[in-house]
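User: Design a sequence. Structure:
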């Protein structure tokens, strides 16, 4: 039964969830209603905060198939609960959807068929979503996605479009005709409206949601309690603070909603033309589109309202919304396997694999190209939140919670304070009952002790530091949409960088070319734009093999193509719409050299002309284009020189890929060596190839031929060498990060050797460091997966193992003493394919490779995200710096993602830098560290404030006294709020240091600091409290007490008379109260100064002028009223007169307290403890290539010293990567030797690990 009731939806995906079924129970509902009334609504609040409790308290378990409510729990580390109500979609209510064909489909169970006649292929693909007898479909909505009941799998499943399980053949054969009106209406009922609905919640709704936060409820409770105790002023101050906090929070939340709404509103409703089955064109609103509709792309372009696959014509699209790069991309129609000469008939369509043929939602179609009489058509594959843009918006609307130790520890700390409050609560009740105090007073005083221990101002105090940090970041051009992440950035110890546009300049410069003649390389040439080369095939390839287009008269396209085309100085001309209409074919794009490059006596060309007159100039027409494919690593074109009978095929791409498609006899023997020489110097190398096509290939045949038929048997023509310059600031920034013990990793889409070269140039890999390339091969022909390890500098000698110098191999000498350890630093480099194979087949090796992996080349966007996750799995705090949305997933997943692009795509990134330079990374980490230390300071100060006040009140409760209202007010408003909001103003330290701040509150140093200050403060307060009772002049205070011997003085007499007239009901005025008030007032300021540390993470506190001024002013004021009492002040604060000698004694107690507090905090904790541990680190793990921050050891020291953590093994580091680094030091098999192979054993599936054999 339990197995039946607990299922998993979205299995294996990021949003995988367990699902449980429940039915509403009336008797449970009645009991809960009674509980809500009895608890004054508190139970209702508790159930509002806890969806799991809410469902379990009001419902009974039921089979998922028949339940009324589902309870969902995420399977990730957060285990978050959600609940959703089951709704029923009745298909009978829709008149259009019940022709006979529909009823038949329902009786077959195919409620969600995407074609008119369900075939066997589709029976597997499309599930039985409805209960056949009732013609009703049960569903629920979670995070903007509808999940329908699926009879086939006996579970809920979300409705898929044409993006899964549909072959390319069926897209043409079954879906290209369009839908009937009935089918369209039927699908619309299921898929709903095609819109990404970001509703901006009303201010009232947001207000209710914000106010029902547990902290604000606690503040409300405190305010009501204080009001009953006539403590109105502070109650009013807390109310004002809460209102300001709520208003600012509402403003920022609403602003984000509005921004997001505006971002999706651009394409939410436009008019589109769709083709119906009978070839009629119908104009509908884009909100009515459903998967399967055939949309006509207008000539003048449009913003795509959905994801659609192109089946006719060509489009030029600006995809900056998705990729962050505003380079126009050419989209061609999906290859039709049934027409192509050579094609894979049953290849499944996938929007990612076929992205060159897919128009994505939110992207802008700038231009279309077409056959005359044929429209540019695309089939809608996904709508609404299922589209690429919808998924992006969903990830922003429903972000994953950030799991940060600080916040977990903060809750633990609060729980400790609550426990302390509980002790005080019980003590107060028992003490008051023993002293026969009235019930009303007992209730108020015992509850009051809770509000003292858990300060209601804590949330406002904690956010102050973050708000100030956010403001400082804004000043240096870094914008933040997730302020909580600023603190997390203070912990970053590894940063991943994209290469192009991030570490290096955006564009490439043409360094030169190296042509090939007779299978031999000629010497490199710098100038391509000359008369000698103008008619060469090499220049013809550079002129035609690109995806450039003219938009409003300006040449635009891929920056690499632009640089290449500009280098030859040719002119590109495109046919206008009118010219295209005159001919019954696509008019070619024409390229020609400028007249000055052509020799004076230009030959007239071939006399036998087919289509054209004698040409006056040399022109080449581009007949067919096969766009660049990152999977194939190449692009090609079919072109024809004006006047030539045969067409030419030109190809350019990655040198290895091109050489493999050329005739071996045309590729120079030293091709590999020449290529490596260039790539090692950091050049981007592109190879060119060419062949003459057969004359039987006519214009029309070329339009339908597959690229495989063209891209083979080519002649190798040579190399184009492009230079990608490092940005000026890159080396300096990376050096700063290395000095600060922050690891740097390169994640790029570029080639491996270029990436390694750039890594060396920018200092990511030092000259003496070794680079080991991991080349992983997937299982093939019954052979298991394996990894070949190459040493980067010896790749050229791979075929001669004996040639490798054994000295070049990274060697570790393991000695008895860590002091003698000598180790060569080494780095792993791998490409995206290898990374995927390692993730799948070598899970045991992943953590080891993460520890030293520095270069990850040819990485796809999802692989970048997987890399971030793999690094986080070994406990790194990972930052990611990229320049676009191809890094979008990685930017979101990282602890601190910073985008250098201000385009829409970067909206998912927590941080966006206005200046496109990586100098923002150290700035962000510095500010993060400052904000983190500020949070710790504030938290420690608020904890001490609570404990000091708690102890003051507990001491006074023992003599049935308390602090007066104005004493509370003076402490809470004048001291605490002023200090908290000014101590957060310290700016960040000007440079990054090697130390890292502690990651959590429950760390050795912090606990030692807090506990030592608590003991000191309690000790000196107790000393004052008990010592005053030992004074010869002491007596239990009464209105006629005169310890000051001031009976003769008129000044004191007046206040004395007031005392007599106004009876002190609460016993506020007494010697103990006055002593405790003065000593505790100074203690708040002492701990504020002790905790306000500057270096190494913040500027010194004397540079925080507001704080210094506030503290000095408060010191002077309290000293003044203590040493030179003012009657009016004493009367308001309910202070009694004590002898001058006792005032001096109190001053001495305070001075000794200050000396002890500051000495313990600044000398013992910082100088002795920190340095002892830091030196030990230097001798130990700090020497190794993993970055070991000293604080980790302080944490370990502290935790091992705590009584509840005595079981801790002292030598085991907390972070997995540090533990792993220690293990690898004594592993003789690691790192792998060059020229060795690691194989995965066949039986890898059982426990997810692999047995490794190393073959030399």
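Assistant: Done.
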């Amino acid at each position: 039964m339990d197995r039946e009731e607990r299922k998993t939806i979205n299995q294996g995906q990021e949003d995988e969830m367990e699902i449980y079924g429940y039915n509403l129970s009336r008797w449970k509902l009645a009991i809960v209603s009674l509980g809500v009334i009895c608890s004054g609504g508190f139970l209702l609040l508790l159930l509002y905060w806890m969806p799991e409790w809410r469902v379990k308290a009001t419902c009974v378990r039921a089979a998922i198939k028949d339940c009324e409510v589902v309870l969902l729990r995420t399977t990730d580390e957060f285990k978050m609960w959600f609940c959703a109500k089951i709704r029923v979609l009745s298909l009978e209510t829709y008149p259009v959807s019940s022709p006979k064909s529909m009823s038949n489909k329902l009786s077959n169970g195919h409620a969600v068929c995407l074609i008119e006649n369900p075939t066997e292929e589709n029976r597997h693909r499309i599930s039985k979503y409805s209960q056949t007898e009732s013609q009703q479909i049960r569903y629920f909505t979670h995070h903007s996605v509808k999940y329908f009941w699926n009879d086939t799998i006996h579970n809920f499943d979300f409705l898929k479009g044409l993006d899964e399980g549909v072959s390319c053949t069926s897209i043409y054969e079954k879906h290209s005709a369009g839908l009937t009106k009935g089918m369209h209406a039927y699908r619309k009922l299921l898929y709903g409206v095609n819109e990404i609905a970001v509703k901006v919640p009303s201010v009232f709704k947001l207000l209710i949601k914000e106010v029902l936060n547990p902290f604000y409820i606690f503040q409300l409770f405190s305010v009501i309690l204080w009001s009953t105790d006539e403590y109105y002023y502070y109650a009013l101050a807390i109310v004002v603070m809460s209102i300001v906090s709520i208003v600012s929070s509402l403003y920022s939340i609403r602003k984000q909603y509005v921004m997001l709404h505006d971002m999706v509103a651009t394409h939410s409703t436009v008019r589109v033309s769709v083709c119906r089955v009978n070839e009629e064109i119908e104009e509908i609103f884009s909100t009515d589109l459903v998967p399967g509709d055939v949309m006509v792309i207008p000539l003048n372009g449009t913003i795509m309202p959905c994801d659609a696959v192109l089946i006719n014509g060509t489009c030029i699209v600006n995809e900056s919304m998705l990729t962050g790069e505003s380079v126009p991309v050419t989209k061609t129609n999906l290859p039709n396997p049934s027409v192509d000469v050579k094609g894979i008939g049953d290849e499944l369509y996938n929007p990612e694999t076929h992205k060159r043929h897919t128009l994505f939602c939110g992207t802008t179609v700038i231009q279309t190209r077409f056959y005359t009489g044929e429209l540019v058509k695309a089939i809608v594959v996904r709508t609404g939140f299922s589209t690429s843009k919808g998924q992006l918006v969903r990830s922003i609307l429903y972000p994953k919670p950030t799991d940060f130790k600080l916040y977990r520890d903060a809750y633990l700390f609060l729980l400790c304070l609550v426990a302390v409050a509980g002790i005080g609560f019980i003590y107060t009740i028992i003490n008051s009952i023993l002293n026969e105090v009235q019930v009303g007073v007992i209730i108020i005083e015992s509850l009051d002790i809770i509000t003292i221990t858990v300060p209601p101002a804590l949330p406002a105090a904690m956010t102050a530091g973050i708000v100030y940090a956010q403001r400082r970041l804004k000043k240096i051009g870094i914008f933040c949409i997730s302020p909580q992440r600023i603190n997390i950035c203070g912990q970053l110890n590894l940063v991943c960088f994209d290469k192009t546009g991030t570490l290096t300049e955006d564009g490439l410069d043409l360094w030169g070319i190296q042509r090939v003649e007779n299978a031999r390389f000629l010497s490199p040439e710098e100038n391509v734009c000359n008369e000698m080369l103008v008619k060469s095939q090499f220049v013809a390839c550079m002129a035609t093999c690109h995806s450039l287009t003219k938009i409003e008269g300006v040449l635009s396209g891929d920056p690499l193509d632009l640089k290449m085309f500009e280098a030859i100085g040719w002119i590109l001309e495109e046919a206008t719409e009118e010219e295209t209409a005159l001919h019954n074919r696509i008019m070619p794009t024409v390229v020609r050299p400028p007249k000055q490059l052509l020799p004076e006596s230009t030959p007239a060309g071939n006399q036998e002309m087919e289509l054209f007159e004698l040409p006056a100039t040399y022109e080449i027409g581009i007949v067919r284009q096969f766009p660049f494919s990152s999977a194939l690593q190449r692009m090609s074109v079919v072109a024809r020189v004006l006047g030539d009978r045969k067409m030419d095929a030109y190809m350019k791409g990655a040198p290895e890929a091109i050489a493999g498609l050329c005739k071996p006899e045309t590729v120079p023997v030293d091709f590999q060596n020449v290529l490596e020489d260039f790539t090692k110097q950091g050049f981007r190398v592109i190879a060119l190839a060419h062949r003459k096509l057969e004359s039987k290939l006519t214009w029309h045949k070329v339009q339908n031929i597959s690229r495989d038929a063209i891209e083979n048997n080519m002649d190798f023509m040579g190399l184009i060498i492009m230079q990608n310059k490092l940005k000026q600031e890159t080396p300096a920034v990376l050096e700063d990060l290395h000095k600060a013990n922050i690891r740097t990793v390169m994640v790029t889409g570029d080639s491996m050797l270029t990436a390694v070269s750039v890594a060396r140039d920018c200092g990511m890999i030092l000259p003496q460091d070794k680079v080991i390339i991991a080349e992983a091969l997937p299982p093939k022909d019954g052979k298991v997966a394996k990894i070949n390890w190459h040493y980067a500098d010896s790749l050229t000698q791979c075929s001669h193992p004996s040639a490798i110098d054994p000295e070049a191999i990274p060697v570790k000498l393991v000695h008895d003493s860590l002091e003698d350890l000598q180790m060569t630093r080494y780095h792993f480099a791998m490409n995206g394919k290898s990374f995927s194979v390692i993730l799948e087949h070598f899970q045991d090796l992943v953590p080891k490779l993460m520890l030293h992996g520095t270069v990850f080349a040819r990485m796809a966007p999802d692989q970048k995200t997987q890399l971030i996750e793999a690094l986080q799995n070994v406990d790194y705090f990972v930052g990611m710096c990229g320049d676009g949305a191809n890094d979008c997933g990685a930017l979101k997943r990282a602890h601190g993602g910073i985008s250098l692009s201000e385009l829409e795509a970067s909206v998912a990134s927590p941080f966006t830098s206005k200046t496109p330079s990586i100098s923002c990374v150290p700035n962000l980490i510095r500010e993060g560290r400052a904000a983190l230390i500020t949070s710790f300071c504030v938290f420690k100060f608020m904890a001490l404030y609570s404990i000091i006040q708690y102890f003051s009140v507990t001491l006074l409760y023992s003599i049935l006294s308390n602090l007066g209202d104005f004493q509370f007010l003076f402490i809470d408003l004048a001291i605490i709020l002023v200090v908290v909001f000014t101590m957060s103003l310290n700016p960040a330290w000007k440079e990054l240091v090697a130390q890292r701040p502690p990651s959590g509150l429950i760390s050795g140093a912090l606990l030692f600091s807090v506990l030592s200050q608590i003991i000191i403060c309690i000790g000196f307060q107790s000393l004052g409290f008990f010592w005053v009772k030992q004074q010869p002049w002491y007596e239990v205070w009464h209105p006629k007490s005169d310890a000051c011997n001031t009976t003769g003085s008129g000044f004191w007499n007046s206040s004395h008379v007031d005392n007599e007239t106004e009876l002190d009901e609460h016993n506020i005025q007494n010697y103990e109260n006055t002593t405790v008030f003065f000593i505790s007032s100074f203690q708040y300021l002492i701990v504020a100064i002790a905790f306000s540390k500057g270096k190494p993470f913040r500027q010194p506190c004397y540079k925080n002028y507001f704080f210094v001024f506030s503290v000095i002013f408060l010191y002077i004021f309290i000293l003044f009223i203590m040493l030179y009492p003012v009657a009016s002040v004493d009367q308001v604060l309910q202070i009694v007169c004590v002898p001058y000698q006792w005032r001096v004694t109190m001053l001495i107690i305070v001075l000794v307290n200050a000396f002890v507090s500051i000495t313990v905090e600044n000398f013992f904790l910082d100088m002795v403890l920190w340095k002892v541990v830091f030196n030990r680190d230097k001798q130990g793990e700090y020497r190794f290539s993993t970055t070991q921050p000293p604080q980790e050891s302080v944490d370990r020291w502290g935790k091992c010293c705590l009584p509840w953590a005595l079981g801790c093994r002292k030598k085991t580091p907390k972070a997995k990567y540090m533990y792993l680094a220690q293990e690898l030091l004594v592993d003789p098999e690691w790192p792998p030797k060059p020229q060795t192979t690691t194989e995965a054993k066949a039986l890898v599936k059982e426990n997810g690990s692999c047995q490794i054999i190393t073959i030399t």
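The mean pLDDT is 77. The longest helix spans residues 1140-1179.
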